[in-house]
Amino acid sequence: MKSTQMFAIDCEMVLCEDGTEAVVKVCVVDHNLEVKLNELVKPGKAIADYRTEITGISSQDLEAVTCSLPDVQKSMKKLLENGAILVGHSLHNDLRVLKIDHVRVVDTAYIFQSSDGSIHKRPSLNNLCKTVLGYEVRKDGAPHNCLDDARAAMELLLARVKNGVDKDFPVQLQEPVSESDMARLFLHNISTTVNSETLDKVLPGEYTIEVKPSRKAGQGNNKYCAFAIFKNPLEAHNAYENIQGTELKDSNGRPQKLVKFRLDAGNTASIFVRKTALHEPRDSISLKRGLQTDDEDHISKKSKREDDAQLNEIESLNERLKESESETASLREQLKQKDLDIEALMLQLSKKDFEINLLNKMVASLKKRR
Protein backbone atom coordinates (compact mmCIF):
# COMPACT_ATOMS: atom_id res chain seq x y z
CA MET A 1 0.00 0.00 0.00
CA LYS A 2 3.04 2.31 -0.24
CA SER A 3 2.73 2.61 -4.01
CA THR A 4 2.24 6.06 -5.54
CA GLN A 5 1.65 4.69 -9.03
CA MET A 6 -1.39 6.06 -10.80
CA PHE A 7 -3.35 4.62 -13.71
CA ALA A 8 -6.28 6.26 -15.49
CA ILE A 9 -8.97 4.09 -17.05
CA ASP A 10 -11.93 4.48 -19.35
CA CYS A 11 -14.35 1.89 -20.73
CA GLU A 12 -16.90 1.69 -23.51
CA MET A 13 -20.09 -0.24 -22.82
CA VAL A 14 -22.81 -1.86 -24.93
CA LEU A 15 -26.34 -2.82 -23.99
CA CYS A 16 -27.03 -6.56 -23.69
CA GLU A 17 -30.30 -8.33 -24.42
CA ASP A 18 -30.82 -9.04 -20.71
CA GLY A 19 -30.85 -5.29 -20.01
CA THR A 20 -27.37 -5.12 -18.46
CA GLU A 21 -24.29 -3.36 -19.79
CA ALA A 22 -21.08 -5.10 -20.85
CA VAL A 23 -17.62 -3.68 -21.45
CA VAL A 24 -16.36 -3.82 -25.06
CA LYS A 25 -13.25 -1.66 -24.79
CA VAL A 26 -10.82 -0.82 -22.00
CA CYS A 27 -8.01 1.73 -22.10
CA VAL A 28 -5.52 2.40 -19.31
CA VAL A 29 -2.67 4.94 -19.22
CA ASP A 30 -0.06 5.71 -16.56
CA HIS A 31 0.85 9.14 -15.17
CA ASN A 32 3.11 9.73 -18.19
CA LEU A 33 0.08 9.10 -20.44
CA GLU A 34 1.74 5.97 -21.81
CA VAL A 35 -0.68 3.23 -22.82
CA LYS A 36 -0.76 0.26 -20.47
CA LEU A 37 -3.91 -1.38 -21.76
CA ASN A 38 -5.86 -0.85 -24.97
CA GLU A 39 -8.11 -3.81 -25.61
CA LEU A 40 -11.36 -4.62 -27.34
CA VAL A 41 -13.36 -7.05 -25.20
CA LYS A 42 -15.74 -9.78 -26.36
CA PRO A 43 -18.87 -9.75 -24.15
CA GLY A 44 -20.11 -13.11 -22.94
CA LYS A 45 -23.73 -12.11 -23.63
CA ALA A 46 -25.89 -11.37 -26.66
CA ILE A 47 -25.71 -7.66 -27.55
CA ALA A 48 -28.90 -5.69 -28.17
CA ASP A 49 -27.33 -2.29 -28.93
CA TYR A 50 -23.70 -1.51 -29.80
CA ARG A 51 -24.35 2.24 -29.32
CA THR A 52 -22.00 2.79 -32.25
CA GLU A 53 -22.70 6.52 -32.45
CA ILE A 54 -21.35 6.82 -28.90
CA THR A 55 -18.84 3.98 -28.56
CA GLY A 56 -17.53 4.03 -32.14
CA ILE A 57 -17.66 0.23 -32.04
CA SER A 58 -19.70 -2.03 -34.32
CA SER A 59 -20.34 -5.78 -34.44
CA GLN A 60 -17.65 -6.15 -37.14
CA ASP A 61 -15.04 -4.70 -34.76
CA LEU A 62 -15.62 -7.56 -32.31
CA GLU A 63 -15.75 -10.48 -34.77
CA ALA A 64 -12.09 -11.49 -34.38
CA VAL A 65 -11.72 -10.38 -30.74
CA THR A 66 -10.72 -13.10 -28.26
CA CYS A 67 -10.05 -10.96 -25.17
CA SER A 68 -12.67 -11.61 -22.47
CA LEU A 69 -13.68 -9.88 -19.27
CA PRO A 70 -11.65 -12.33 -17.10
CA ASP A 71 -8.59 -11.50 -19.27
CA VAL A 72 -9.06 -7.79 -18.57
CA GLN A 73 -9.58 -8.46 -14.87
CA LYS A 74 -6.26 -10.33 -14.74
CA SER A 75 -4.48 -7.43 -16.44
CA MET A 76 -6.07 -4.92 -14.08
CA LYS A 77 -5.18 -7.02 -11.06
CA LYS A 78 -1.56 -7.04 -12.13
CA LEU A 79 -1.51 -3.26 -12.60
CA LEU A 80 -3.18 -2.57 -9.26
CA GLU A 81 -1.67 -5.33 -7.11
CA ASN A 82 0.78 -3.00 -5.31
CA GLY A 83 -1.91 -0.57 -4.24
CA ALA A 84 -1.78 1.75 -7.23
CA ILE A 85 -4.26 4.63 -7.46
CA LEU A 86 -6.95 4.21 -10.11
CA VAL A 87 -8.17 7.39 -11.80
CA GLY A 88 -11.28 7.93 -13.92
CA HIS A 89 -14.29 10.11 -14.59
CA SER A 90 -17.48 8.77 -12.96
CA LEU A 91 -15.27 5.83 -12.17
CA HIS A 92 -17.96 3.73 -10.49
CA ASN A 93 -19.48 3.01 -13.91
CA ASP A 94 -16.21 1.53 -15.19
CA LEU A 95 -15.67 -0.54 -12.05
CA ARG A 96 -19.23 -1.83 -12.27
CA VAL A 97 -18.93 -3.24 -15.80
CA LEU A 98 -15.42 -4.55 -15.08
CA LYS A 99 -16.75 -6.21 -11.88
CA ILE A 100 -13.73 -4.85 -10.01
CA ASP A 101 -13.60 -3.44 -6.49
CA HIS A 102 -10.67 -1.13 -5.78
CA VAL A 103 -10.15 1.09 -2.74
CA ARG A 104 -7.59 3.68 -3.83
CA VAL A 105 -9.40 5.79 -6.41
CA VAL A 106 -9.65 9.39 -7.60
CA ASP A 107 -12.77 10.41 -9.51
CA THR A 108 -12.25 13.56 -11.57
CA ALA A 109 -15.98 14.27 -11.40
CA TYR A 110 -15.57 15.20 -7.71
CA ILE A 111 -12.20 16.96 -7.26
CA PHE A 112 -12.89 20.41 -8.73
CA GLN A 113 -14.65 23.33 -7.14
CA SER A 114 -16.92 25.71 -9.00
CA SER A 115 -15.90 29.36 -9.16
CA ASP A 116 -19.00 30.20 -7.10
CA GLY A 117 -17.67 28.07 -4.25
CA SER A 118 -20.09 25.17 -4.61
CA ILE A 119 -19.19 21.56 -5.30
CA HIS A 120 -20.88 19.93 -8.28
CA LYS A 121 -21.09 16.15 -8.29
CA ARG A 122 -21.14 15.31 -11.96
CA PRO A 123 -19.52 17.83 -14.34
CA SER A 124 -18.94 16.32 -17.77
CA LEU A 125 -15.45 15.21 -18.77
CA ASN A 126 -15.58 17.36 -21.89
CA ASN A 127 -16.57 20.47 -19.95
CA LEU A 128 -13.81 19.90 -17.39
CA CYS A 129 -11.26 19.54 -20.19
CA LYS A 130 -12.42 22.80 -21.78
CA THR A 131 -12.31 24.76 -18.52
CA VAL A 132 -9.26 23.18 -16.85
CA LEU A 133 -7.06 21.99 -19.72
CA GLY A 134 -8.20 24.36 -22.46
CA TYR A 135 -9.24 21.78 -25.06
CA GLU A 136 -12.24 19.65 -25.96
CA VAL A 137 -11.86 15.92 -25.60
CA ARG A 138 -14.52 15.49 -28.31
CA LYS A 139 -16.66 17.54 -30.65
CA ASP A 140 -20.44 17.57 -30.37
CA GLY A 141 -21.95 14.44 -31.88
CA ALA A 142 -18.59 12.66 -32.24
CA PRO A 143 -18.22 9.16 -30.74
CA HIS A 144 -16.19 8.74 -27.58
CA ASN A 145 -12.51 7.88 -27.82
CA CYS A 146 -11.73 5.55 -24.95
CA LEU A 147 -7.99 6.27 -24.96
CA ASP A 148 -8.48 10.04 -25.17
CA ASP A 149 -10.89 9.92 -22.23
CA ALA A 150 -8.44 7.95 -20.08
CA ARG A 151 -5.65 10.42 -20.88
CA ALA A 152 -7.95 13.36 -20.18
CA ALA A 153 -8.81 11.97 -16.74
CA MET A 154 -5.11 11.61 -15.90
CA GLU A 155 -4.30 15.12 -17.16
CA LEU A 156 -7.10 16.56 -15.04
CA LEU A 157 -5.75 14.86 -11.93
CA LEU A 158 -2.19 16.01 -12.68
CA ALA A 159 -3.44 19.58 -13.13
CA ARG A 160 -5.19 19.36 -9.74
CA VAL A 161 -2.05 17.97 -8.07
CA LYS A 162 0.20 20.59 -9.72
CA ASN A 163 -2.01 23.36 -8.34
CA GLY A 164 -1.77 21.79 -4.88
CA VAL A 165 -4.52 19.60 -3.50
CA ASP A 166 -4.65 21.73 -0.34
CA LYS A 167 -5.36 24.88 -2.35
CA ASP A 168 -8.59 26.03 -3.92
CA PHE A 169 -8.89 25.33 -7.62
CA PRO A 170 -11.99 27.25 -8.68
CA VAL A 171 -13.03 26.75 -12.30
CA GLN A 172 -16.04 27.65 -14.40
CA LEU A 173 -17.48 24.14 -14.52
CA GLN A 174 -20.60 25.06 -16.39
CA GLU A 175 -21.72 26.88 -19.47
CA PRO A 176 -24.49 29.49 -19.48
CA VAL A 177 -27.90 27.99 -20.02
CA SER A 178 -29.59 29.51 -23.06
CA GLU A 179 -33.12 30.81 -22.83
CA SER A 180 -34.16 28.35 -25.52
CA ASP A 181 -32.92 25.44 -23.38
CA MET A 182 -34.86 26.74 -20.40
CA ALA A 183 -38.01 26.89 -22.53
CA ARG A 184 -37.96 23.13 -23.17
CA LEU A 185 -38.98 20.03 -21.25
CA PHE A 186 -37.27 16.73 -21.97
CA LEU A 187 -39.58 13.73 -22.46
CA HIS A 188 -37.96 10.31 -22.43
CA ASN A 189 -38.56 6.59 -22.06
CA ILE A 190 -41.48 6.98 -24.47
CA SER A 191 -42.88 3.78 -25.94
CA THR A 192 -43.07 3.67 -29.73
CA THR A 193 -46.78 2.92 -29.28
CA VAL A 194 -47.18 6.55 -28.15
CA ASN A 195 -47.18 8.93 -31.12
CA SER A 196 -46.42 12.65 -31.13
CA GLU A 197 -50.13 13.50 -31.38
CA THR A 198 -50.71 11.69 -28.09
CA LEU A 199 -47.76 13.48 -26.47
CA ASP A 200 -49.32 16.76 -27.53
CA LYS A 201 -52.21 16.05 -25.12
CA VAL A 202 -50.21 14.84 -22.14
CA LEU A 203 -48.66 18.08 -20.83
CA PRO A 204 -50.50 21.26 -19.81
CA GLY A 205 -49.98 24.49 -21.76
CA GLU A 206 -49.20 25.34 -25.36
CA TYR A 207 -46.11 23.80 -26.92
CA THR A 208 -44.78 21.95 -29.93
CA ILE A 209 -43.32 18.45 -29.89
CA GLU A 210 -39.89 17.81 -31.37
CA VAL A 211 -39.16 14.09 -31.64
CA LYS A 212 -35.49 13.20 -31.33
CA PRO A 213 -34.27 10.44 -33.67
CA SER A 214 -33.19 7.37 -31.73
CA ARG A 215 -29.49 6.59 -31.59
CA LYS A 216 -30.25 2.99 -30.78
CA ALA A 217 -30.55 0.35 -33.42
CA GLY A 218 -31.92 -3.18 -33.31
CA GLN A 219 -35.15 -5.01 -32.75
CA GLY A 220 -35.09 -4.31 -29.01
CA ASN A 221 -35.41 -0.57 -29.58
CA ASN A 222 -38.98 0.32 -28.57
CA LYS A 223 -38.34 3.65 -26.83
CA TYR A 224 -37.64 7.18 -27.99
CA CYS A 225 -37.37 10.70 -26.58
CA ALA A 226 -38.64 14.17 -27.48
CA PHE A 227 -38.68 17.82 -26.44
CA ALA A 228 -41.75 19.86 -25.56
CA ILE A 229 -40.88 23.38 -26.74
CA PHE A 230 -42.70 26.30 -25.09
CA LYS A 231 -42.81 30.00 -25.97
CA ASN A 232 -40.63 30.99 -23.01
CA PRO A 233 -38.95 29.52 -19.90
CA LEU A 234 -41.75 30.61 -17.59
CA GLU A 235 -44.35 28.60 -19.52
CA ALA A 236 -42.06 25.56 -19.47
CA HIS A 237 -41.53 25.95 -15.73
CA ASN A 238 -45.27 26.34 -15.04
CA ALA A 239 -46.08 23.33 -17.24
CA TYR A 240 -43.60 21.18 -15.32
CA GLU A 241 -44.98 22.33 -11.95
CA ASN A 242 -48.56 21.59 -13.07
CA ILE A 243 -47.83 18.11 -14.38
CA GLN A 244 -49.61 15.42 -12.37
CA GLY A 245 -47.00 12.72 -11.88
CA THR A 246 -44.77 10.85 -9.46
CA GLU A 247 -41.70 12.81 -8.30
CA LEU A 248 -38.50 10.86 -9.04
CA LYS A 249 -34.85 11.48 -9.92
CA ASP A 250 -32.86 10.45 -12.98
CA SER A 251 -29.47 8.69 -12.95
CA ASN A 252 -27.71 12.04 -12.35
CA GLY A 253 -29.94 12.92 -9.41
CA ARG A 254 -31.96 15.51 -11.34
CA PRO A 255 -35.68 15.81 -10.49
CA GLN A 256 -38.16 14.43 -12.99
CA LYS A 257 -41.76 13.22 -13.02
CA LEU A 258 -43.23 9.90 -14.09
CA VAL A 259 -46.45 10.71 -15.93
CA LYS A 260 -49.07 8.04 -16.65
CA PHE A 261 -51.92 8.45 -19.11
CA ARG A 262 -54.48 6.38 -20.98
CA LEU A 263 -54.23 5.73 -24.72
CA ASP A 264 -57.18 5.69 -27.12
CA ALA A 265 -56.94 1.89 -27.17
CA GLY A 266 -57.67 1.86 -23.44
CA ASN A 267 -54.29 0.68 -22.16
CA THR A 268 -52.01 2.78 -19.93
CA ALA A 269 -48.70 4.34 -21.03
CA SER A 270 -46.09 6.40 -19.19
CA ILE A 271 -43.21 8.81 -19.85
CA PHE A 272 -40.57 10.64 -17.82
CA VAL A 273 -40.53 14.46 -17.94
CA ARG A 274 -37.74 16.71 -16.70
CA LYS A 275 -36.41 20.19 -17.30
CA THR A 276 -33.49 20.66 -19.70
CA ALA A 277 -32.08 23.28 -17.28
CA LEU A 278 -31.97 23.05 -13.51
CA HIS A 279 -32.82 26.67 -12.81
CA GLU A 280 -36.14 28.28 -12.04
CA PRO A 281 -37.44 31.48 -13.71
CA ARG A 282 -38.22 34.25 -11.19
CA ASP A 283 -40.96 35.81 -13.28
CA SER A 284 -42.04 36.38 -16.88
CA ILE A 285 -39.65 39.35 -17.29
CA SER A 286 -36.55 38.47 -15.29
CA LEU A 287 -35.21 34.91 -15.31
CA LYS A 288 -32.71 33.51 -12.91
CA ARG A 289 -29.73 32.48 -15.04
CA GLY A 290 -27.74 29.49 -13.87
CA LEU A 291 -24.97 27.19 -14.93
CA GLN A 292 -25.27 23.57 -16.02
CA THR A 293 -23.68 20.88 -13.89
CA ASP A 294 -23.64 18.27 -16.64
CA ASP A 295 -23.94 17.81 -20.38
CA GLU A 296 -27.43 17.28 -21.84
CA ASP A 297 -26.18 13.96 -23.19
CA HIS A 298 -29.16 11.86 -22.07
CA ILE A 299 -27.88 8.79 -23.87
CA SER A 300 -24.48 8.78 -22.14
CA LYS A 301 -22.25 5.72 -22.40
CA LYS A 302 -22.03 5.86 -18.60
CA SER A 303 -25.79 5.77 -18.09
CA LYS A 304 -27.00 3.16 -15.63
CA ARG A 305 -30.42 3.10 -17.22
CA GLU A 306 -31.93 3.96 -13.85
CA ASP A 307 -34.91 5.58 -15.53
CA ASP A 308 -35.84 2.22 -17.06
CA ALA A 309 -35.17 0.49 -13.75
CA GLN A 310 -37.44 2.93 -11.91
CA LEU A 311 -40.20 2.45 -14.46
CA ASN A 312 -39.84 -1.33 -14.44
CA GLU A 313 -39.92 -1.36 -10.63
CA ILE A 314 -43.04 0.79 -10.55
CA GLU A 315 -44.75 -1.37 -13.18
CA SER A 316 -43.72 -4.50 -11.26
CA LEU A 317 -45.16 -3.08 -8.02
CA ASN A 318 -48.37 -2.17 -9.86
CA GLU A 319 -48.64 -5.74 -11.15
CA ARG A 320 -48.08 -7.10 -7.65
CA LEU A 321 -50.71 -4.70 -6.34
CA LYS A 322 -53.20 -5.92 -8.95
CA GLU A 323 -52.42 -9.54 -8.06
CA SER A 324 -52.84 -8.78 -4.34
CA GLU A 325 -56.15 -7.04 -4.98
CA SER A 326 -57.32 -10.01 -7.05
CA GLU A 327 -56.27 -12.47 -4.35
CA THR A 328 -58.01 -10.33 -1.70
CA ALA A 329 -61.21 -10.27 -3.74
CA SER A 330 -61.01 -14.05 -4.15
CA LEU A 331 -60.51 -14.55 -0.42
CA ARG A 332 -63.45 -12.28 0.34
CA GLU A 333 -65.58 -14.29 -2.05
CA GLN A 334 -64.48 -17.52 -0.37
CA LEU A 335 -65.17 -16.01 3.05
CA LYS A 336 -68.59 -14.90 1.90
CA GLN A 337 -69.29 -18.42 0.66
CA LYS A 338 -68.07 -19.82 3.96
CA ASP A 339 -70.44 -17.46 5.79
CA LEU A 340 -73.29 -18.74 3.63
CA ASP A 341 -72.26 -22.33 4.33
CA ILE A 342 -72.16 -21.59 8.07
CA GLU A 343 -75.60 -20.01 7.92
CA ALA A 344 -76.94 -23.08 6.08
CA LEU A 345 -75.37 -25.39 8.66
CA MET A 346 -76.77 -23.29 11.51
CA LEU A 347 -80.23 -23.53 9.92
CA GLN A 348 -79.88 -27.31 9.60
CA LEU A 349 -78.69 -27.49 13.21
CA SER A 350 -81.66 -25.43 14.33
CA LYS A 351 -84.02 -27.79 12.48
CA LYS A 352 -82.36 -30.80 14.10
CA ASP A 353 -82.66 -29.16 17.54
CA PHE A 354 -86.35 -28.58 16.84
CA GLU A 355 -86.85 -32.22 15.76
CA ILE A 356 -84.98 -33.50 18.82
CA ASN A 357 -87.00 -31.25 21.11
CA LEU A 358 -90.24 -32.43 19.45
CA LEU A 359 -89.24 -36.10 19.76
CA ASN A 360 -88.35 -35.60 23.43
CA LYS A 361 -91.81 -34.15 24.07
CA MET A 362 -93.47 -37.07 22.24
CA VAL A 363 -91.47 -39.60 24.28
CA ALA A 364 -92.36 -37.82 27.50
CA SER A 365 -96.05 -37.79 26.56
CA LEU A 366 -96.02 -41.55 25.78
CA LYS A 367 -94.37 -42.31 29.09
CA LYS A 368 -97.11 -40.47 30.98
CA ARG A 369 -99.85 -42.47 29.21
CA ARG A 370 -98.29 -45.73 30.30
Automatic annotation (TrEMBL):
Gene3D superfamilies: 1.20.5.170, 3.30.70.330, Ribonuclease H-like superfamily/Ribonuclease H (3.30.420.10). Residues 5-166 form the Exonuclease domain. The keyword Plastid does not apply. Pfam families: RNase_T. It is found in: Nucleus. This is Exonuclease domain-containing protein. It comes from the Eukaryota. The lineage of its organism: Eukaryota, Viridiplantae, Streptophyta, Embryophyta, Tracheophyta. Belongs to the REXO1/REXO3 family. Keywords: Coiled coil, Exonuclease, Hydrolase, Nuclease, Nucleus. Residues 304-341 form a coiled coil. The keyword Coiled coil applies.
